[in-house]
């Protein structure tokens, strides 16, 4: 350890002993440094346009970041209009990228975080991130040599680009087909790199399909397209990522015939119908001492936010667990699966849970 590093570590320990790790990290964020005590901060190294309304943002995380596997996600947190917002983004690079991270963000006109990242983030900016999570990853060992079919729709290209890059990092890229749907030619990301990867790897085949192109629309995912462009999937590992409709269509076509089927959606599935008569339910928030009234027809996260109660959240579809909360008493329903949770002292995800009756939450 150099003398300078030793002095920095001593200063860090001395400061943390005075203001605590949380206070240290708060002021680290305020001063725009990544030298946090326990949180993961990352500095923006590069911002580049990727497709007509997407940006690829390259980040250098601090030493608190524990690493990742290609295809996983991170949560990104930023203060926007006085509120801390958190959203999940897939990593599109591989773990061999010298611990840099790459996320590709499509601008959603209704999305505050994507708007913030597109307009306010510059080289040198510091973002708070989470540890990586998610199970969209390639197998290890001999199974990684199996043929793979990657199905991407729109922003779903991000995690699949990580998997594809990882397969191309091997000495000989195993047989791999990428079918990539987007509105039109202008929206496709990673164009030049995909062309170069195909030129360097004879067993890699990339097909771009448009859904709204005025010149030629190829249509949405279908059995005919897959048969024509890839063929039989019985010995194939299939990975699919896109909106929930796309993922469910891919699942219906391939989950029973593929060797393995792994899928993630970046939009929530349709909620199950709530046959209960609409009613207002009392929710007791034990830590704040407040009691509020919410509808049994909406998610607890939406209900809390509508009443001005800020709750940390991320994906808003039950994946990242950022909004997990201890339910002390009462019953909830998972509004996507319809599963009920009647257990006391159990963890629930506020974004996908709605109340069946009076609740006590550890908030």
Low-confidence stretches: none
In what range is the share of β-strand residues? 25-35%
Q: Please provide the count of β strands.
A: 19
Q: What is the CA–CA distance across the termini?
A: 43 Å
Largest sheet: 6 strands, antiparallel
Structural class call reads alpha/beta
Note the total helix count.
7
Q: What series of H and E elements makes up the topology?
A: HEEEEEHEEHEHEHEHEEEHEEEEEE
Mean pLDDT score: 90
Biggest β-sheet: strands ordered side by side in the sheet: 4-3-6-1-2-5
Q: Which value, in Å, is the CA radius of gyration?
A: 23 Å
Overall 3D shape: globular
Helix content: 10-25%
Domain FAD-binding FR-type: 37-139
Protein name: Flavin reductase family protein
Cofactor: [2Fe-2S] cluster
Pfam families: FAD_binding_6, Fer2, NAD_binding_1
In words, what does this structure look like?
Residues 279-363 form the 2Fe-2S ferredoxin-type domain. InterPro entries: 2Fe-2S_ferredoxin-like_sf (IPR036010), 2Fe-2S_ferredoxin-type (IPR001041), Beta-grasp_dom_sf (IPR012675), Cbr1-like_FAD-bd_dom (IPR008333), FAD-bd_FR_type (IPR017927), Flavoprot_Pyr_Nucl_cyt_Rdtase (IPR001709), FNR_nucleotide-bd (IPR039261), MRET (IPR050415). Residues 37-139 form the FAD-binding FR-type domain. It comes from Zhongshania arctica. The protein has 363 residues and is of the alpha/beta class. It has helices at 3-30, 112-119, 157-168, 191-200, 223-229, 244-254, 300-306; strands at 40-49, 54-61, 73-80, 83-90, 101-106, 126-129, 148-153, 176-182, 204-210, 237-242, 260-265, 280-285, 290-295, 324-329, 332-334, 340-341, 346-349, 353-355, 359-361. The strands form four sheets. Strands 4-3-6-1-2-5 form a six-stranded antiparallel beta sheet, covered by helices on one side. It has a five-stranded parallel beta sheet with strand order 9-8-7-10-11, sandwiched between helices. It is globular. The model has no long low-confidence stretch (mean pLDDT 90).
């Amino acid at each position: 350890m150099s003398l300078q590093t030793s002095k920095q570590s001593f200063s860090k320990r001395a400061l943390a002993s005075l203001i605590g790790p949380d206070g240290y990290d708060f002021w680290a964020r305020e001063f725009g440094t990544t030298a946090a005590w326990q949180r993961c901060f990352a500095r923006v190294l590069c911002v580049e346009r990727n497709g007509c309304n997407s940006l690829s943002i390259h980040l250098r995380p601090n030493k608190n970041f524990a690493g990742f596997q290609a295809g996983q996600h991170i949560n990104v947190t930023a203060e926007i209009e006085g509120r801390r917002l958190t959203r999940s983004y897939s990593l599109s690079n591989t773990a061999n990228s010298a611990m840099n991270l790459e996320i590709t963000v499509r601008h959603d006109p209704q999305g505050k975080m994507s708007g913030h990242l597109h307009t306010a983030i510059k080289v040198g900016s510091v973002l708070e991130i989470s540890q990586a999570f998610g199970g969209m990853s390639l197998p290890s060992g001999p199974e990684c040599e199996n043929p793979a079919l990657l199905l991407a729709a729109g922003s779903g290209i991000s995690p699949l680009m990580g998997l594809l890059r990882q397969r191309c990092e091997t000495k000989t890229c195993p047989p791999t087909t990428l079918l990539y749907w987007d509105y039109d030619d202008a929206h496709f990301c990673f164009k030049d790199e995909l062309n170069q990867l195909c030129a360097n790897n004879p067993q890699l085949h990339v097909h771009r399909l448009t859904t709204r192109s005025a010149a030629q629309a190829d249509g949405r995912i279908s059995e005919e397209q897959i048969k024509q462009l890839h063929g039989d999937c019985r010995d194939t590992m299939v990975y699919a990522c896109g909106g929930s409709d796309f993922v469910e269509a891919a699942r219906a076509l391939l989950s029973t015939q593929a060797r393995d089927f792994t899928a993630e959606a970046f939009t929530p599935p349709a909620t199950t119908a709530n046959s209960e008569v609409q009613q207002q339910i009392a929710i007791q928030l034990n830590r704040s001492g407040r009691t509020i009234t919410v509808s049994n027809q909406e998610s607890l996260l939406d209900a809390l936010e509508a009443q001005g109660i800020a709750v940390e959240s991320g994906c808003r579809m039950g994946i990242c667990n950022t909004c997990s909360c201890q339910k002390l008493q009462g019953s909830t329903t998972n509004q996507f699966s319809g599963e009920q949770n009647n257990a006391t002292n159990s963890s629930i995800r506020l974004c996908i849970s709605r109340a069946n009756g009076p609740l006590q939450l550890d908030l």
